[in-house]
Specification:
This protein is mainly α and 235 residues long. The protein has 9 helices and no strands. The radius of gyration is 18 Å and the shape is globular. It comes from Nocardia stercoris.
Length: 235
């Protein structure tokens, strides 16, 4: 490599590139994570947890240098609350994430329809509560707490004092752990885009109940963004 190549400044990714990366990364998260549930007909909890964790891990290393690899409106809002991300960029990121998640849900639907007798309603890896599952308040508390913990992990491993090479692995493992804990509670959201991206196609109760999975993760993310400095002393 020549000296001119070595000394050339790194070009900051354009807004279009960053939004494209967020769209692609969120698409991958929904296709990989929710797809594992749909294509395996409600796959075993460890397998689904690993699928979600691995999509974030691989997406972080593939796209993190472009957009920061949020892939989640709660992450974007939490980072902005903690002053790690500009509020002016939040609407674009959230819109890109919702588009990516919706495209992921659509891809799952198209593929799943290749199976004879497939019905989307109740079989699109949607989130929910009631019936034989946990109550609404249990779901709200779980989503707030687990999203907050997810943000604490992200804020910690992306600190200037942390080791950047391990961030993707740590965040992916954190999401895996969160799914291991909360799949029995509500199917695990901690990500409004992930929930909305498949609720469009699941319909019925999925759409009627999706508001919880839009609101509770955002509350948890804001809680973490506000309190992280108070708890850890990190600016």
């Amino acid at each position: 490599m020549s000296d001119s190549q070595t000394d050339a400044p790194t070009k900051f990714p354009s807004t279009a590139a960053r939004l494209g990366a967020e769209t692609l990364g969120t698409f991958w998260l929904v296709l990989g994570g929710c797809g594992a549930v749909v294509f395996f007909g409600g796959a075993e909890r460890v397998a689904v947890s690993l699928a979600f964790g691995l999509t974030v891990l691989t997406g972080a290393y593939a796209l993190g240098h472009i957009s920061g690899a949020h892939f989640n409106p709660a992450v974007t809002v939490g980072l902005a609350t903690a002053r790690r991300f500009g509020w002016q960029n939040v609407p674009g990121y959230v819109a890109a994430q919702v588009v990516g998640a919706t495209l992921g849900g659509l891809a799952i639907l198209i593929i799943a329809k290749g199976q004879s007798g497939f019905v989307a309603k109740g079989h699109m890896a949607t989130n929910g509560w009631g019936g034989d599952n946990y109550s609404l308040w249990a779901v709200i508390i779980a989503e707030i707490l687990l999203t907050a913990m997810f943000l604490y992990v992200i804020l910690g491993v992306t600190s200037p004092r942390a080791t950047p090479a391990t961030a993707g692995v740590t965040i992916g493992l954190a999401l895996t752990l969160i799914h291991l804990v909360s799949i029995p509670i509500d199917g695990t959201s901690v990500n409004p885009a992930r929930s909305l991206g498949v609720a469009w196609f699941g319909g019925g109760h999925a759409l009627a109940q999706v508001w919880v999975f839009l609101v509770a993760p955002l509350v948890g993310a804001i809680l973490a963004g506000v309190t992280h400095k108070l708890i850890t002393g990190e600016d």
